[in-house]
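Quick start: what a row looks like.
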Amino acid sequence: MSTADPSDSSGEPSGAQGPAPTPPDAPPVAVVGLGGSAGSLDAFERFFVGLPLGSELAFVVVSHLDPHQESLMPEILQRCTVLPVLLIQDDMALKADHIYVTPPGFSVGVQGGRLRLEALERAQGHIIDAFFSSLARDRGEQAVGVILSGMGQDGTAGLQAIKAAGGQVLVQDPQSAEFSSMPEAAIKTGLADVVLPAEDIAPRLYELVTHTALLAPGDLEAEGQTELQKILLLVRSRTGQDFTGYKVSTLVRRIDRRMKSQRIPALGRYLRFLIETPGEVEALAQDLTINVTRFFRDPDAFARLKEHLRSTLMIREPDQVAVRVWVAGCSTGEEAYSVAIVLHELMEELGRPLSVQVFATDIDPQAIATARLGLYPHSIAQIVSAQRLGRYFKPSEEGYQIQGFIRESVVFAQHNTFSDPPFTRLDLLCCRNLLIYLKTELQRHILAVFHYALKPGGLLFLGTSETLGPEREHFSTLDSHWRIYRRGQEAARPLPSGQIVARGESSLLRRTALPFQPDLRPQQRTLSQQAQRVLLTQYAPPAVVINLQGEILFVSGQTGRYLELPSGTPSPNNVLEMVQDNLRYDLAAAINTLKREPRELKVRSHLTGPSGSVLLEITLRPLHGPEQGLLLLIFHEQPASDAPRQDAPSEPYDMVQALRQELHHTRETLQATVEEAFISVEELKSTNEEYQTTIEELKSTNEELMTSKEELQSLNEELITTNSEHQRIISELGQANDDMNNLLESAGIATLFLGNDFKIKRFTPRFANVIRLLPGDIGRPIGDFHLKLRYPHFQRDVAQVLSTLLPFETQVQTDDGHWFLMRITPYRTASNFIDGVVVAFTNLDSVKVLEEQASISARYAQALLERMPDAVMVFNGQKQLLAANPAFYRLLRTTPARSQGHSIDQLGLDQLALKEVQNALNQLLADGQPIRELLLDVDMPGLGRQPFKLEAWPAGAAEDGSGSGSGENVYLLLLENLSTIAARLGTDSGR
């Protein structure tokens, strides 16, 4: 941002080149509708506090108000802005730089640039929607809708109408809103052009409508920052108020507001304008001191404060009747009176006499003057309840006057919270909405001062947008929403460095000339200074300025004849050490007299020098001005010849007179010395008492330290024991870890641990047969690696186990032909939390070899069985047919499908049902006794009766399908046709 040279000596004000001021009846360039509920008064205030002047906009405030009560909105908003605030009347014309407030009991519309009042029923409870819709129809692209804090969704439909007409929509950030329903509903529409806190909406609106960029902290380059510091120094030198600790954004916004009101575009030109216009400095300082307050601001907050004050007062000792309160940044006094009223109500409710003392301070003298009057407008009746209004206020023609007993309990003073000494031993400290304007460093500084000022257990009451930050460890939270805290019981910390300053600092600042103030007439000032210097040198008597301690602050003329440095180590610039001995006591007595009674005194004495004896007269004259306690010492000497001549006979009389005068001075000096000694004794007594108190505190502290030492020793022993236990546990954990590693290694199982995110947590070395992993791969997803498996569903199975928590196992084969049994189980922690899966691969190569061999043997046995000519069958313990060879099925003339599963008693062989056969079979089933060569005659269809031999024996356990051999016991039965065997044998012998 370009700035003008402050040294520019142009006689015209910088604002002369700016645009002409807006005519008083000019139409607005745009109309801004502000919608919010009755609880959004704070948001309205913040909006208008941040509004730059000269925007040429018209503002219409529409809020949900009680239709049966008078509106307090115009009076409250008028305190936040210099723009006129008007209550809307029917057919009122919209004008630029005016604020219009909707009256209770009406809805409002716009037609032809004029405001129309309508019946409240026509809006059907949505007065903001009704106005926004009317504004969109009448103004089109010149319509602006702003939604602030509020309950419900009123205004959302109206914003849609404004956006459809080409207007602009701005919404308060819900996080900064006391009631967030309306802002959140507006944001959900997706129509908001800007979402900002209430105090930042107005500057952004100004930029959007006027297309003029405002001054911003980021725009300040090195030169601009220097000019900003010069402006703050100028304000401090003229008013005594230091704003360097304020946030840069706050300062820039206020300065930019004043620049726009004066039509000055550049910061350098505004600095020049401030130097040449002292009244503008006062106006800027008034803008920088933000006075926004009202009675019982946030009633719920004061209700909660009253509850905590009641509980605090109830636990106090009966003899503790004094209640000290400090309201910092009290503005025009409403908050201080509100606190005093709450305390008087508690005094009546508890029936305890209390001495209430409320210290209310602010840096703005005008605000303090208003607070001292205690007179407020009739409109406060809308905020203060009727009961409190009748009890604590007196009605008058000008408004409501605070009652005398409340006024007497509040002391108002101009006070700088940042640098002046704080009030101490406080039961309650209120500082609401002051810290939000300050830098973080200054906030910490002030909170440290507040901790020092509060007594242990005292309450701290902040604004809803303020927090304790790093100081929270020294306070306990009583109500986090309304920011009510209690100070801890620890001893008060010392005040922060730089807190207490001399009371005369502000006055000294006011008299300090600015180094950059221009010299408008350098030649005239040079001539006058030269002339004054010559006159002072030639004709003015020598003089010095001292303080009441005798320290020389200023020297004029040749004083070397009367003042000289003593031998040894002199006191720095002390006049009592530099005068002659015969003047020292008289001069000290005169200074002590002037301490008690400021008046002009003279001290006379003879002064001996190289030219003879002269009479020296020293005039002591107090300096009247802002700085108190300064004396002017004027040295004037007379030659001895000018003194009254005396005859020789009178010389003894002169000696007696001189002795008497010296005795009188000695007595005065002695009296002053005695008084000083008495004061010193009193001070020493006080100091001794403080030392005694300090010694007692140190003894108590020493005892506490000894107790703490013993506790620390006990704690140290416990720590040593705990450390030993931890060492033992670590050793056991190491041993268990080694055991687990050896167990996994000796088991020969490749194990992989995966997390819930499929990332590798741990693996055993044998897992390299499946995936080649390195220790650095821990933490990487398993999907990044190629599994050497002929199985594509590994990750799917892992996900299934994580979702179902059921183990899963299957046989898989690697690319190089090895077989593994893959088992996936959930990984459960000691607290039964699922933290991934465990994947175990067991080598099955030997099992597969055995299975192959068993399969070959089974095939051989099956082939041999099928080739046997005799009938062979297999049955179980229930005598059910499980299997048979083809000879058996030919013998029975049946098929496997028709016979398997049936009892051997039902197969059609009557001889098998004989009693001796059944007994033999039952004996076989009972104790496994084989049947040997049981001969039978079987009637074979078509062949007649044939001799058979039956044999049966146990064959072991049947396979259960898994190859484990864990099925039921089975038995083998052989039927040999003896005739067939004989025939076969005969055939073989014939051959």
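That is the whole record. The chain has six domains: 23-210, 217-288, 299-487, 528-563+573-642, 748-843, 862-990. Residues 451 and 487 are 7 Å apart (CA to CA).
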